[in-house]
Amino acid sequence: MIFIDIEADSKIEKYADDFKEFNDKQLQLNNQQQQLQASILEQTKQLKDSQQKLLDSAEKSSELQDKVDKIKNPKNYLYVSMRNMFDKWQNDILMDKKKQEDNK
């Protein structure tokens, strides 16, 4: 009888070890699944962001193309744009000089 009890105990221990091993593997798989889900969510977010950037770029490109189409004389437009920028810089410099003189 003692032999049977030892054999039953060893089977119970084996089943307990097998169950623990199975449980550990299940936990590992659950962790891997959670990591994969988090990765998929992050990649989905990045994909949505990229799609939105692409849509924004396409819209801006379309707007720029509309502006280019409206320009009758590109050389004149470029000259006027450069002149306006120069005037702005000159105005900024003059305003800075005036502020410096007022502070003295």
How would you explain this protein's 3D organization?
- There is one protein chain.
- Helices cover 95% and strands 0% of the residues.
- The chain has 2 helices and no strands.
- The radius of gyration is 37 Å and the shape is elongated.
- The number of helical runs is 2
Give Rg in angstroms. 37 Å
Helix content: over 70%
H and E string: HH
Runs in which pLDDT lies below 50 for 5 or more consecutive residues are: none
Any idea what the shape is? elongated
Q: Alpha-carbon distance between the termini? A: 110 Å
Query: How large is the share of residues in beta strands?
Result: under 5%
| SSE-based structural type | mainly alpha
Give the number of DSSP strands: 0
Largest sheet: none
The oligomerization state is: single chain
- Could you report the average pLDDT, rounded to the nearest whole number? 87
What distinguishing features does this structure have?
single chain; 104 residues; mainly alpha; 2 helices; elongated
What's the structural blueprint in terms of helices and strands?
Blueprint: H1 2-70, H2 74-103
Can you summarize this structure?
The chain is an all-alpha fold and 104 residues long. Helix content is 95%, strand content 0%.
